[in-house]
Amino acid sequence: MSTAPQAARPLLSVRDLSVTYPGAGEGVPAVRGVSLDVAAGETLGLAGESGCGKSTLAGAILRLLPRGTEVTGEVLLDGEDVLTMRPGRLRAVRWTELAIVLQGAMHSLNPVQRIGAQIAEAIELHEPGLGRGEVRGRVAELLELVGIPAGRAQDYPHRFSGGQRQRVLIALALACRPRLLIADEPTTALDVMVQAQVLRLLARLQDELGLAILFVTHDLSTLASVCRRIAVMYAGRIVEEGPSGEVFRTPAHPYTRALAAAFPVIGDPAFRMHPSGLPGDPPDPRDLPSGCPFHPRCALAQPECPAIDVRLRPAGPGRAAACVLVEPS
Amino acid sequence: MTPLLELRGVEVGFPVRGGGVARAVDGVDLAIEAGEVLALVGESGCGKTTLARTIVGLERPDLGEVRFEGEPVARRGRALREYRRRVQMVFQDPAGALNPRQTIYEAVAEGVRIQKVPGNEEALVADALSRAGLRPPERFFPLYPYEVSGGQRQRVVIAGAMVVGPSLLVADEPVSSLDASVRGEILELMLGLVRETGVSILVVTHDLGLAWNIADRVAVMYLGRIVEQGTTEELLGDPKHPYTAALLSVVPEAGVREPQILAGETPDPVRIPSGCRFHPRCPLYVSGEAARLGIEERCRTEDPPLAPVRGGRQVAACHATAATAGVAG
């Protein structure tokens, strides 16, 4: 279902995507029929914990998954299916249409190449007609855009702090002016203050460049503060979707409720000396519970939950949740 | 009343390549009472982990002293062994803290053997695992760390610390590597241990939400020094140091407060700024508020001491706080 108000075709439309990794028997189902839309210039937050399939989903959109992985469904970028693109077209689309920023900024940059040269390389590869001066100008512009003085293009990665390296990676991702940025836990390894700096930078870029962002993290409160819409994943499926403020403040799915309560509202007496969590652990995709895969951890589980494979159903205007307790309105 | 553990003027430095000393802990006074949870909060590089390591005896102070139950901590012999039994460390990453080739039984029994805890070893291990929520404990005895979940590994680490009957647990980021939904359960376990056994916990974290969840008091550390300290309600409800206020403002909470994003990152402890060490990043100093209060010069040249900021136990090291408190009477 689509919650975008406009009738225009979304920039990215993922349709019934499933990803199965090779493994014993029928393989490991990491993503099990996910559909989502990201409009041009929009920020969609994708929340979930380890093993829920969110990073696999991000990798599938960019076709970065290992060989032998079974991917079905469609990833439509402006109506064109990324999954069936020829290699040449795919190379052009990566960077110029779609780009990704991963967590762990320390390990994604080449340690023996100046950062300016790394960014220039990406530009030259995709726009071979540009002169050296123009490329240098673009590198300077990109660095300034992410708040790093252009003069530092000559420095090697080790000369930068963790937060600065994450900014360099964002500049690198933006080198070929993509329209959609996939940010997979871009702030997870960073300190709170640096995290706030990077989040503010992403918000500014979205505003200034009209960039669409798919923001993937386990931290629902971060998503609520930077994204217009949120989709929550559990065991390879989207279990709730809607406007971020509403999903965060009045979750419809018991799992979303637990995620929202995991990071307390400081000052709220309800959380004082009262940490809130769920029993058990996120399920192993190799061994998913029957029916609703959340039922073993759900405080509100009904007798029928182990038997019903509940799908997303409407849960108010622009909202959907996959829970038997949600009344189809 | 004598505190359980007390630090007096503790300094710990590390020589750095090319000369100079990184003053990781630069004059810290701190007390932990029996049965309380104290959160030591700060960004990476502020010295909080060095301080924790100093408390458990992994680093030696260059200056100042660590006192336990009113006595200086022994440096050798049986008294040191006894101190090491009573003060236990829970490390950050439960995957790294456990020996992958040791069963869970062996991991927990190791402490019993090293500390020569009297009693039946198997009964002690079973009791510790069971108190840590791993029930029935016998089921976990033969398992290896990779065979259990991240949350369960953290429980094993906590059981290994609790099995020797400590008076103080020093926990360094105990939940930062765990999934959001698992986090609350581990924090709940820690609160339960305090209630049931009267153990004190010093929890080292960058996460103010965690402090709101479980801490009685909070101490905020910046560049080797405690800059503010108070009860959790006072300190997080009405922070008096501008650094605490800034840290609190960037906790993502769907835009509750106007975020005060400090420029840059924690400075190098080799070159601690003169005067108030926070002044180059301080919003009051940078915005000219300090000049308006007529204290700009002092911020730059005088190192502010921790001073009471109200009738209660809250103290802050800030010229502006001291000046405005004086005006308000």
How would you describe the overall organization of this protein?
The complex is a heterodimer of chains A (329) and B (329). Chain A contains 10 helices and 12 strands. By secondary structure, chain A is of the alpha/beta class. In chain A, strands 6-7-8-3-9-10-12-11 form an 8-stranded mixed beta sheet, with helices on both faces. In chain A, strands 2-1-4-5 form a 4-stranded antiparallel beta sheet, with helices on one face. Chain A is globular, with a radius of gyration of 21 Å. The N terminus of chain A is likely disordered. Chain B is α/β, with parallel strands linked by helices. Chain B is 38% helix and 21% strand. Chain B is built from 15 helices and 12 strands. In chain B, strands 6-7-8-3-9-10-12-11 form an 8-stranded mixed beta sheet, with helices on both faces. Chain B is globular, with a radius of gyration of 21 Å. The mean pLDDT of chain B is 91.
**How many strands in all of chain A?**
12
**Tally of helical segments of chain A:** 10
Structural class of chain A: alpha/beta
Roughly how many Å is the radius of gyration of chain B?
21 Å
Radius of gyration of chain A: 21 Å
| Shape estimate of chain A | globular
Side-by-side strand order of the widest sheet of chain A: 6-7-8-3-9-10-12-11
Average pLDDT taken over every residue of chain A: 90
Chains forming the largest contact:
A-B, 47 and 43 residues
Sheet with most strands of chain B: 8 strands, mixed
Distance from first to last alpha carbon of chain B: 30 Å
Main β-sheet of chain A: number of strands, strand sense, barrel status? 8 strands, mixed
Helix count of chain B equals 15
Rounded average pLDDT of chain B: 91
Strand content of chain B: 15-25%
Following the backbone from N to C, one meets helices and strands of chain B in this order, namely EEEHEEHEHHHHHEHEHEEHHHHHEEH
Low-confidence runs of at least 5 consecutive residues of chain A? 1-6
**Biggest sheet strand line-up of chain B:** 6-7-8-3-9-10-12-11
Quaternary assembly? heterodimer
Order of helices and strands of chain A: EEEHEEHEHHHHEHEHEEHHEE
